[in-house]
Design goal:
This is DUF1214 domain-containing protein. By secondary structure, the protein is α+β, with helices and mostly antiparallel strands. Helices cover 24% and strands 25% of the residues. The protein folds into two domains: 229 residues, no CATH class; 169 residues, Jelly Rolls, CATH 2.60.120. It contains seven helices and 18 strands. It has a five-stranded antiparallel β-sheet. Strands 10-11-17-13-14 form a five-stranded antiparallel β-sheet. A four-stranded mixed β-sheet has the order 7-6-3-9, with no helix packed on it. Helix 1 runs parallel beside helix 3 and helix 2 runs antiparallel to helix 3.
């Protein structure tokens, strides 16, 4: 049977052609002024797009029916989006405010765990003139539960109910506008284990319906807006509206940290962000006082996409960071291996973005940065700063890879 034999053919073809047009337009954003005109970063822009093309219809179609919820792994080693942190594992499930859901499984040993119900996505962020970030971002946190609040049995097994009548423990309320459950696990040590998570709607009695032409048309429309939105908004949206957390005019310096109230309080975090640029012969020393609490640093590309955290030392947490004898942590950002334990790899990029997150409290430290010549590192660092040999760096790489594979179940 040829085109036109079905009454839906014209609408389906038009929707697909529109999606392909949007995808082509998204690719043009790889050449935006904010993305350095070097081979690696131009290629990385298209990698960012293709990684997210791979999840466009998972979000728009395969997991979209809130009557049949599915936990979608939003980011991972081969899919980066939204300023993702290398030591966070993200899941989301589309939900609605009418249904009641049962999330169950085993808690795991990640140092940080947060379940958040997200509400409506307004065109403008409340009380501001800031447009919302592209789908599926921009929705407002409504309620959250942290890992230490979760009641489990002696083996870590739990059941969490989302929606429905109030419960005293292991319950998250919803509203008529609730649309998403967002789950983050934050890891500190390499030996921590991820949670095992399963979700279902209470009262499911039959299999989901197959997609109709109208369902597919709506999915193509959503996916097209998604791929164009992500290429348009990164890094432009945080660069334009992220003050005081993000300030691209202050290269190689941290602005003030933000957090502790509003949406960030519901997410259980405080954040500050460094926009960096390094010449081939330069290095950046990032110095701050060692402090209590759980924090993490992630190095990212120009589209706020985390760098290769399976094989490269682009992220640090308290347990994996050495402290100098004066009580200060010094991270060394450079293009080649500095030979110091706390080396942050740039993976050859000329520019990038680095984010510090502090979980559970406001940050209790300030940052100092020094841009120096790469060959002046030894003179600039304390004599006792820990170094590693080539063999030790290889061993670190294998330890990192094994841990990431464990977090992502064998990837």
């Amino acid at each position: 049977m040829s085109f036109g034999a079905s009454s839906n053919d014209t609408a389906l073809r038009a929707a697909w052609q529109q999606f392909c047009t949007q995808l082509q337009a998204a690719g043009e954003q790889a050449f935006k002024d904010s993305n350095p005109a070097n081979a690696l970063q131009r290629a990385d822009a298209f990698r960012f797009l293709t990684q997210n093309l791979g999840q466009a219809f998972d979000l728009a179609l395969e997991t979209k029916d809130t009557r049949y919820p599915a936990l979608h792994r939003f980011c991972g080693p081969t899919r980066k989006l939204g300023g993702d942190a290398a030591d966070l594992v993200y899941h989301q499930a589309w939900i609605d405010g009418e249904s009641v859901y049962r999330l169950h499984g085993r808690k795991g040993t990640a140092r940080f765990l947060n379940f958040t119900v997200q509400g409506p996505r307004p065109a403008m962020q409340p009380g501001t003139n800031i447009p919302s970030l592209h789908e599926p971002f921009g929705d407002i946190p409504e309620a959250n539960l942290f890992g230490h609040q979760l009641q489990t049995d002696s083996d870590g097994n739990f059941e969490l109910i989302i929606g429905g009548e109030r419960r005293e423990t292991n319950w998250l309320p919803t509203t008529p506008g609730s649309r998403k459950l967002f789950i983050r696990q934050g890891f500190d040590r390499w030996d921590e284990t991820p949670a095992q998570l399963f979700i279902e709607r209470i009262g499911m009695e039959q299999a989901p319906p197959l997609p109709t032409p109208q369902t597919m048309i709506a999915a193509m429309d959503w996916a097209g807006a998604f791929v164009t939105g992500l290429m348009h908004d990164w890094p432009d949206h945080p660069y334009r509206y992220g003050a005081p957390v993000v300030d691209p005019t202050q290269l190689n310096r941290f602005p003030v940290a933000s957090g502790g109230d509003g949406a960030d309080a519901k997410r259980g975090r405080a954040v500050t962000h460094l926009c960096w640029a390094l010449a081939p012969d330069e290095a950046l020393i990032i110095e701050f006082d060692a402090h209590d609490g759980f924090w993490m640093v992630t190095n990212s590309g120009m589209f706020f996409n985390s760098m290769d955290y399976r094989y490269r030392p682009i992220s640090y947490t308290p347990s994996r960071t050495t402290v100098d004898t004066d009580g200060k942590i010094r991270l060394i950002l450079s293009h080649d291996d500095s030979g110091y334990h706390n080396w942050l790899d740039t993976q050859g990029f000329a520019r990038g973005n680095l984010t510090y997150r502090c979980f559970g409290s406001a940050p209790t430290t300030t940052f100092r940065t020094r841009l120096i010549k790469r060959d002046a590192l030894e003179a600039a660092l304390p004599s006792g700063s820990k170094t590693v040999s080539g063999d030790q760096r290889v061993a670190q790489m294998h330890e990192r890879l094994a841990a990431i594979q464990r977090r992502y179940a064998g990837l």
